[in-house]
Amino acid sequence: MKNASRPNILFLLTDDQRYNTIHALNNPEIITPNLDRLCKMGTAFTNAHIPGGTSGAVCMPSRAMLNTGRTLFHIKDCGQTIDENHSTMGQHFKESGYYCFGTGKWHNSPSAYTRSFSGGENAFFGGMWDHWNVPVNNYDPTGKYDNVIDFVCNFFYDNKVTKIHCDKFNPGVHSSELISQTVIDFINSYDRENPFFCYAAYLAPHDPRTMPKRFKDMYDPDKITLPENFMEKHPFDIELRDRDEFLADYPRDEKEVRRHLAEYYAMITHLDFEIGRIIDALESSGQLENTVIVMTGDNGLGVGCHGLMGKQNLYDHSIRIPLIMAGPGIPKNQVRDNFVYLLDIYPTLCELSGTEIPASVEGISFKQMFDDKDFVTREKLYLAYCEAIRGVKTKDYKLLEYRNIANQTQLFDLKNDPNELENLYGKPEYAQIVSEMRAELENLRLKWEDNAENQFTAKYWHAK
Question: pTM for the whole thing?
Answer without folding.
Answer: 0.97
